[in-house]
């Protein structure tokens, strides 16, 4: 046991290892273990003869929901890195928790794993217990289990599971630095800050869509009120029809902006989340590479080959991070422009709303429910404009932060 082990968090039946230790393993495309480091060998409790050539599920613990692996394999199969909290078991039946960073490599997959310790990890343990219990009791399909996990990410305010795991990786790296007495890493700090801005954009866009959908019922209310106040085709009826026509145009634009497959907000979120996860992965790979300098010889493992592959992967993830950030910056700029355009279109609705207020004043004693209907318009318009301005501001924050990163990195 290393001196960095936090015994206060160790559970009964849990195998100890230190925050300074990183697990490493590499498998072929079928999940057969082809290489691993001494930490993996020691903590798992298996001999090298049992590990090399065995399926990686030899260390799988049934308390890790099958949906976790469905999400992982789906991402890796598409050529994307992914992270996950994983509960593993040892040869002696004990267990240990890791946060795993997994990446596709030539002819297989690679995983670097660190010791988790954040409040998010505590919540994930409870979530896994709940979902794995349902899996066994209800014989859940892994895709159903995966959807339950995606819902957890959405309920926590994240636009995707990748974004959720990017946030988790940033939190775990920062907590690990603190446990080891290291100064805060500027790249990790940027990762966390950018992820927070990204998720605020996601929250704002969903609130914006809900506000605008609620707004759609108001022209109908105005028309009902108008039928009681004036002859058919009167000014209030005309105002309600004009408002409905204009709001429908904006509504369609807004839906393409924040809803539907591959919308603009989704493109920003997807590329930014990918960039953030790659940034954290790159840091883990760099440290893992350093650790291989003192690796003991193991029959069946060519450490020179592993080092070469890791160095190449470290460079590849750095380039991929830049590419994803450049795309995210472009999408963020487009998002800001679209927000500003919709904000300008809202001015036309404001004009129609003011005309409604004028008619309300003209009718005075006979206004009936018109005044309260116009009051509703005032509330929704103010809310929508605030959401749009927030999205514009956050988009600019994301773009500026990523541009700063791109300028500071070689």
Describe this structure in words.
With 410 residues, the chain is of the alpha+beta class. The protein has 2 domains: 7-174, PAS domain (Beta-Lactamase); 186-408, no CATH class. 66% of the residues lie in helices and 9% in strands. The protein is built from 12 helices and 5 strands. It has a 5-stranded antiparallel β-sheet with strand order 2-1-5-4-3, with helices on both faces. A hairpin with a 4-residue loop joins strand 1 and strand 2. Helix 3 packs across helix 5, helix 6 runs parallel beside helix 10 (264-291) and helix 11 (303-363) packs antiparallel against helix 12 (370-408). The longest helix has 61 residues, at 303-363. The radius of gyration is 27 Å and the shape is elongated. The two termini are 38 Å apart. Mean pLDDT is 85; it is low at 1-5.
Helix count, DSSP H or I runs of 4 or more residues: 12
Read across the widest sheet, the strand sequence of neighbours is 2-1-5-4-3
Distance between the termini: 38 Å
Q: Spell the H/E element sequence.
A: EEHHHEEEHHHHHHHHH
The amount of helix comes to 55-70%
Range of strand content: 5-15%
Main sheet attributes: strand count, strand direction, barrel closure: 5 strands, antiparallel
Q: Give the overall shape, derived from the CA principal axes.
A: elongated
Low-confidence stretches: 1-5
Number of domains: 2
C-alpha Rg, in Å?
27 Å
| Total number of strands | 5
Whole-number mean pLDDT: 85
Tell me the structural class. Answer: alpha+beta
Domain PAS fold-3: 37-106
Keywords: Receptor
Organism: Rhodobacter aestuarii
InterPro entries: PAS (IPR000014), PAS-like_dom_sf (IPR035965), PAS_fold_3 (IPR013655)
């Amino acid at each position: 046991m290393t001196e960095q082990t936090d015994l206060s968090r160790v559970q009964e039946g849990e195998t100890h290892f230190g925050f300074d230790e990183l697990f490493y393993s590499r498998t072929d495309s079928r999940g057969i273990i082809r290489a691993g480091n001494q930490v993996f060998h020691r903590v798992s409790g298996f001999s090298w003869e049992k590990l090399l050539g065995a399926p990686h599920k030899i260390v799988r613990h049934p308390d890790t929901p099958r949906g976790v692996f469905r999400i992982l394999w789906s991402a890796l199969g598409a050529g994307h890195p992914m992270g996950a909290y994983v509960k593993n078991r040892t040869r002696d039946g004990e267990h240990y928790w890791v946060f795993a960073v997994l990446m596709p490599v030539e002819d297989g997959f690679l995983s670097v794993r660190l010791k988790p310790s954040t409040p998010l990890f505590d919540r994930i343990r409870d979530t896994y217990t709940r979902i794995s219990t349902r899996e066994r009791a209800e014989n859940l399909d892994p895709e159903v289990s995966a959807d339950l996990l995606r819902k957890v990410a959405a309920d926590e305010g994240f636009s995707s599971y990748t974004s959720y795991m990017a946030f988790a990786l940033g939190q775990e790296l920062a907590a690990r630095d603190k446990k080891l007495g290291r100064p805060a890493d500027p790249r990790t700090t940027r990762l966390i800050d950018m992820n927070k801005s990204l998720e605020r954009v996601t929250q704002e866009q969903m609130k914006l869509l809900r506000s605008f959908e609620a707004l759609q019922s108001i022209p109908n209310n105005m028309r009902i009120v108008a039928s009681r106040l004036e002859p058919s085709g009167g000014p209030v009826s005309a105002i309600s029809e004009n408002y409905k026509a204009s709001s429908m145009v904006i509504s369609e634009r807004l839906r393409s902006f924040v809803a539907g497959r591959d919308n603009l907000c989704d493109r920003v979120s997807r590329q930014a989340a990918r960039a953030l996860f790659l940034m954290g992965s790159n840091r883990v790979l760099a440290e893992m590479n350093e650790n291989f300098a003192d690796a003991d010889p193991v029959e069946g493992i060519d450490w020179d080959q592993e080092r070469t592959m890791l160095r190449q992967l470290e460079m590849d993830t750095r380039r991929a991070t830049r590419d994803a950030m450049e795309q995210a910056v472009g999408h963020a700029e487009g998002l800001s422009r679209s927000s500003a355009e919709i904000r300008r279109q809202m001015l036309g609705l404001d004009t129609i709303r003011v005309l409604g207020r004028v008619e309300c004043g003209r009718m005075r004693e006979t206004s009936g429910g018109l005044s309260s209907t116009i009051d509703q318009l005032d509330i929704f318009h103010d809310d929508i404009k605030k959401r749009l301005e927030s999205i514009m501001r956050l988009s600019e924050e994301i773009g500026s932060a990523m541009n700063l990163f791109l300028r500071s990195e070689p």
